[in-house]
Amino acid sequence: MSDVRDVNLDFDRENRTGLAEAVFCQGKSAAQLETICQTVIDAERSMLFTRLSASQYDYLDEKFPHKLDYDEVSRTAFHMAREHTASVPLAVVTGGSTDLPVAKEAVRTLEFYGHEALEVHDVGVAGLWRVTERLDELRACKIIICVAGMDAALPTVLGGLVPAAMIAVPTSVGYGMVKGGETALSSLLVSCAPGVTVTNIDNGYGAASAAIRILNSFA
Predict the structure, then answer these.
(1) Helix, strand, coil percentages for the chain (3-state, nearest 5)
(2) Using one digit for the tens of pLDDT, what is the confidence trace for 175-202?
(3) Cβ atoms < 10 Å from Cβ of 84
(4) What CA–CA distance (Å, rounded) separates 37 from 109?
């Protein structure tokens, strides 16, 4: 394992902020992840791992069999996720199926904290009927995380149709001038739907964290 000085987990963060520390795994060595996992298991604490590749997970599963609940689409893993609790209704919506990894990162983050989300996928504005036929369900939600690439028009459209707190996630999906999601981000930052909150590109975890802060305010 790596030197223990490489790892200094913040187990008290949830008491301070309502959000526990999550381990961002991209760029971490196998030895660092092994030390983190051992520390979490020894402390009998829950932990969310994000951007955990399949090969990183395979390594950890070999070292700590069946200790992590892994989802390959979202590249997330849980150790001791929370029990499901009743909460205000919320949804995660995608413009296209290629936005799914980012959306699933949000869904899994919510799930880690015990919140179940309505999932509405592949309802981009190129076929508006796909989202309008789900409006009754979406209007019942208090929080919507809307994930979209290309021109990221969907959060703006939904922001003009439903009263929910709207958290928009621009993705890096698209051709040419999408510029790795920068076009989607710029589009959302000038959204004409008032009150749309915008996260960084591909940041499903950040969107779910914002939703959890709102949910905690209802507690």
Answers:
(1) 45, 15, 40
(2) 888 899 999 999 999 999 999 999 999 9
(3) 11
(4) 18
